């Protein structure tokens, strides 16, 4: 029965694609209809499920370049501290949540399908190895003994001038702001109702925008949206007068 269902889903999936494109072994013409269809799919799950059936390659160079351009950072060689490497995503997410609970910002779960380990948990964005070594020492003093420094592609913040240009282009194009940004985390819980209660309370106390960011299985209550960590830290001092346990973190909104 399982094989029959799998075969049926596979047939429907490829039939749906065929309804939008003229199939070729390597590339398909990107039409507005196909683009709309693809953007409504969870292709990470579909690719993982049917990755052995590698018959079609679809890409949109313009969309990818646009996505990269609007990020408040550039990707460049650097260093991070790695605290986990394994093949179970659930374990990686658990370790990442533990790192975030230590009020560490820039915690990443890196998925590398090729290689010995598929999932890695890395922390920080350091241009120089010295910065990563300082973080590693702090982690050891906090009881995290399994970390090590690795070469990595890091997120180096763009200048305020570059970010201003990006935002102006987004405004002119009528597009919502998306991508990575810094925010001040006030609270995290597995209970959505509790998160909404905390959001309302802090919104009244802080007299500023307080948002809920869903990060399954957690609901994170945060304040503000900042282009760089330094701007968030300036506001953190004021916010800690009311929320003593608040800290700066980096998040991504699609």
Mean pLDDT: 76
Order of helices and strands: HHHHEHEEHEHEHEEHE
CATH topology of the largest domain: Alpha-Beta Plaits
Structural class: alpha+beta
Please state the overall shape, judged from the principal axes of the Cα atoms.
Answer: globular
Q: From the alpha-carbon coordinates, what is the Rg to the nearest angstrom?
A: 21 Å
What is the number of domains?
A: 3
Number of strands: 8
Plain-language structure description:
The structure is a single chain. With 254 residues, the protein is of the alpha+beta class. The protein has 3 domains: 2-59, no CATH class; 73-157, Sporulation related repeat (Alpha-Beta Plaits), CATH 3.30.70; 178-253, Alpha-Beta Plaits (2-Layer Sandwich). Helices cover 42% and strands 28% of the residues. It has 9 helices and 8 strands. The chain has a 4-stranded antiparallel sheet. Strands 6-7-5-8 form a 4-stranded antiparallel sheet, covered by helices on one side. β2 (107-111) and β3 (119-126) form a beta hairpin. Residues 1-9 and 14-28 have low confidence and may be disordered.
List its salient traits.
single chain, 254 residues, alpha+beta, Alpha-Beta Plaits, 3 domains, four-stranded antiparallel sheet, 42% helix, disordered N terminus
Summarize it.
The protein is of the alpha+beta class.
Task: Please outline the helices and strands.
Blueprint: H1 2-18, H2 32-39, H3 43-49, H4 61-69, E1 73-86, H5 89-101, E2 107-111, E3 119-126, H6 129-141, E4 148-157, H7 160-173, E5 179-189, H8 192-206, E6 210-215, E7 218-226, H9 229-239, E8 247-253
Antiparallel strand pairs: 1-3, 1-4, 2-3, 5-7, 5-8, 6-7
